[in-house]
Design a protein that fits this description.
Layout (H helix, E strand, L loop, with lengths): L4 H43 L11 H13 L5 H12 L1
Helix pairs in contact: 2-3
């Protein structure tokens, strides 16, 4: 006569092992996907070049523009003097 108990016990143990293996495998896949996404974001961030630096405007041109704005009445005397002092240093 065949014993059914060891067969059922073996089937139950196999089910537990398979269930645990699939849970661990799924967790590892999620972790690897998360790492790949973070790496991709880091590469995109590193690949973005910094904005170009503003070219220094010629002080003569800046003063000319400033003078025109002052003549048109767009800048007050105080604003004109403050901006002129910034340009001349």
């Amino acid at each position: 006569m065949l014993r059914r108990r060891p067969l059922l016990r073996t089937a139950a143990t196999t089910a537990v092992v398979v269930g645990t293996a699939s849970a661990v495998s799924g967790g590892m896949r999620r972790h690897e996907a998360q790492q790949a996404q973070q790496a991709e974001q880091a590469q995109q961030g590193a690949a973005t070049p910094p904005p170009p630096a503003k070219e220094a405007e010629d002080p003569y041109e800046a003063l000319t523009k400033l003078g025109k704005l002052h003549e048109q009445g767009i800048l007050t005397d105080e604003e004109f003097a403050a901006e002129k002092a910034k340009i001349l240093g």
